[in-house]
Design brief:
This protein is α/β, with parallel strands linked by helices. It has one domain: Cytidine Deaminase, domain 2 (3-Layer(aba) Sandwich), CATH 3.40.140. It has 3 helices and 9 strands, in the order E-H-E-E-H-E-H-E-E-E-E-E. Strands 7-6-5-4-2-3-9 form a 7-stranded mixed sheet, with helices on both faces. A two-stranded parallel ribbon has the order 1-8. A hairpin with a 6-residue loop joins strand 5 and strand 6.
């Protein structure tokens, strides 16, 4: 029987993220500070199995992110080649809480795909997941799980 595609509208979690992916995501956010950074988490719902840090094409701006088109295409091609899907999009808030901003809502081009925001205001950073609407947002559950076989794809590779 064919697997049904991921339906982010109906997904209420928890999203299962391997501890190594959480650590790599936070490390990416710290490396790029004070600029915002972004990336994708891929896998088969509800389990993340790959981490795809993307370059920020809006690198001159500290309060915005725009995924580098080539990195985004490469990540999607890699996911498709493994029969995986985009399970979440992450980005950092170096100076703000891990809560969606008005800009996050206005720039939401992926509908209900879960968004993970990493706030660097505290140590350890605050990591929260959200479903964004046009004018609102809802927090989603996520859990850190034991690491499995991960596919780490550095940006620009």
């Amino acid at each position: 029987m064919a697997r049904r595609p991921f339906d982010p509208e109906g997904f209420d979690g928890p999203l299962e993220i391997p501890a190594g992916v959480v650590e790599a995501m936070v490390a990416h956010c710290r490396r790029e500070a004070p600029r915002e950074c972004c990336g994708l988490l891929g896998g088969s719902p509800p389990r993340v199995s790959s981490f795809h840090p993307l370059r920020n094409a809006a690198a001159s701006a500290e309060t915005r992110y725009d995924a580098h088109p080539r990195d985004l295409i490469d990540a999607v091609v890699d996911l498709r080649s493994r029969g995986a899907e985009i399970l979440a999009i992450y980005h950092s808030h170096p100076r703000w809480e891990a809560v969606p901003s008005r800009t996050d809502l206005d720039e939401n081009h992926y509908g209900a795909v879960p968004r993970i925001i990493v706030s660097l205001l505290a140590d350890p950073p605050d990591v929260r997941a959200w479903r964004l609407g046009r004018d609102d947002f809802q927090e989603l559950r996520w859990v850190a799980v034991e690491d499995g076989a991960l596919h780490d794809r550095p940006a620009g590779e």
